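Quick one, tokens below:
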């Protein structure tokens, strides 16, 4: 049965202001007026305000078109058929194409679902910006649940605004992959965005769940004015898909203008935390290890990234889980753009989060031009280094035995530590005098424990250290 019909139905208020952003203006994405011009084949970028307002599209004046239930055959939502009213939750199991200047009004509490875990579906929103004339697609409601792209669905949104969604708490724009919960699976790149605005979300603006990810070439995403106490972050994802983030993102006016990292997995897919001008905040630990025995899992962090950690149980990062499941962390900033590991709290204090701990052989790990702040919370670890018995520190290198060769040089360099709680700044866990001295060119601020770097434990009866257990560098 067709999902649409034409006829008069009571409308939620629609107010669209005609606004045209010229493609020869010089403002940058996220500004209040103008657009970046196209050069070298790049698309022109109008302002988010102009996209939300409907650009040069006329206010709908016809009877409109109603939609609800299941879409089982391809259909096109035209500008002439606007406003398109989603009067009940819509399940797309075919291809729905939304034309430029089509306005979609979603009823309160309704969801638009694209595909499912087993059935395909596609949503294509095709706004345009040609010759200085902006003709976007606008989806809005008062408020509505979510636009969700399921594991076998795809969504391609161009010059589109998603306004007033997220009432169900999942997020305004949700993409789901096949690796939900504690499951592994392939990365699912089922969400493409090209000059898209997500505004006034009652929760996350964008939620990438189960290793769902952005499609190749995604660019220019604005998330504005959203968030709640329960879901304050502009975006949520799991480590494994951060490398797919759109090239340009601007977050503004949200409860927290940040990317939340939250996962129930004790493993990751190889990934890069890319620098997009907004901080990351991890709720719960990040485990840099694979789901099964094999080569090392690698997490790379780009220069300029700030990664904050909540004080929830087990906060911080664990690199490697066993000799069979090693991990590698590559966090190399620059003097101009250091990487910052810090507290995720609004008001910060030493000991807000635990540490970064290395639990498997250290080959390949590298931290340089970084800054550690507010680490050193109680971790429950002790006797790994030759220093104070409680090994609460910013960095802990666990259990590197005498049969595991020490690196030719320390793998933490040109890094600053300050506002650190605990008893030691860096704990060296080698059971051998050959362990590296991490003092080197690292800088230890005045608000750090007196034991900057513990000496490695020595072999012998018991746990023996020259000078007793307070021996430190």
């Amino acid at each position: 049965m067709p999902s649409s019909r034409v006829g008069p139905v009571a409308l939620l208020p629609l107010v669209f202001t005609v606004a045209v952003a010229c493609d020869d203006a010089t403002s940058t994405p996220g500004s209040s007026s103008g657009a970046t011009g196209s050069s070298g084949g790049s698309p022109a970028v109008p302002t988010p305000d102009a996209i939300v307002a409907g650009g040069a599209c006329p206010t709908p004046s016809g009877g409109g078109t109603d939609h609800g239930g299941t879409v089982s055959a391809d259909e096109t939502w035209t500008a002439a058929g606007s406003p398109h009213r989603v009067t009940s939750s819509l399940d797309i199991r075919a291809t729905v194409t939304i034309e430029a200047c089509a306005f979609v009004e979603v009823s309160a509490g309704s969801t638009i679902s694209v595909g499912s875990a087993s059935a395909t579906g596609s949503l294509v929103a095709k706004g345009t910006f040609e010759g200085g004339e902006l003709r976007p697609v606008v989806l809005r409601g008062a408020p509505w649940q979510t636009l969700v792209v399921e594991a076998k669905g795809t969504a391609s949104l161009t010059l589109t605004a998603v306004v007033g969604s997220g009432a169900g708490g999942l997020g305004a724009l949700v993409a789901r992959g096949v690796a939900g919960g504690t499951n592994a699976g392939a990365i699912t790149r089922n969400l493409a965005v090209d000059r898209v605005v997500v505004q006034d979300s009652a929760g996350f603006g964008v939620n990438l769940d189960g290793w769902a990810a952005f499609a190749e070439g995604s660019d220019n995403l604005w998330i504005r004015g959203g968030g709640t106490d329960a879901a304050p972050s502009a975006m949520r994802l799991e480590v494994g898909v951060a490398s797919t983030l759109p090239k340009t993102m601007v977050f503004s006016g949200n409860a927290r203008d940040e990317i939340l990292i939250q996962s129930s997995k004790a493993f990751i897919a190889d990934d890069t935390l890319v620098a997009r001008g907004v901080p990351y905040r991890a709720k719960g630990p990040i485990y840099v290890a694979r789901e099964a025995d094999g080569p090392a899992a690698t997490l790379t962090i780009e220069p300029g990234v700030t990664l904050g950690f909540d004080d929830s149980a087990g906060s911080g990062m664990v690199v490697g889980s066993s000799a069979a499941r090693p991990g590698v962390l590559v966090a190399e900033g620059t003097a101009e753009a250091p990487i910052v590991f810090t507290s995720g709290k609004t008001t910060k204090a030493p000991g807000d989060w635990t540490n970064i701990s290395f639990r498997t052989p250290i080959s390949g790990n590298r931290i340089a031009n970084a800054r550690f702040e507010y680490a050193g919370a109680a971790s429950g670890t002790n006797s790994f280094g030759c220093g104070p018995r409680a090994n609460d520190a910013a960095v802990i290198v666990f259990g590197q035995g005498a049969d595991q060769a020490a690196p030719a040089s320390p793998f933490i360099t040109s890094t600053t530590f300050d506002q650190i709680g605990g008893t030691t700044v860096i704990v060296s866990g080698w059971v051998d005098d050959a362990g590296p001295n991490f003092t080197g060119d690292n800088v230890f601020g005045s608000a750090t424990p007196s034991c900057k770097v513990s000496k490695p434990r020595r072999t012998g009866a018991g746990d023996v250290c020259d000078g007793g257990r307070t021996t430190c560098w």
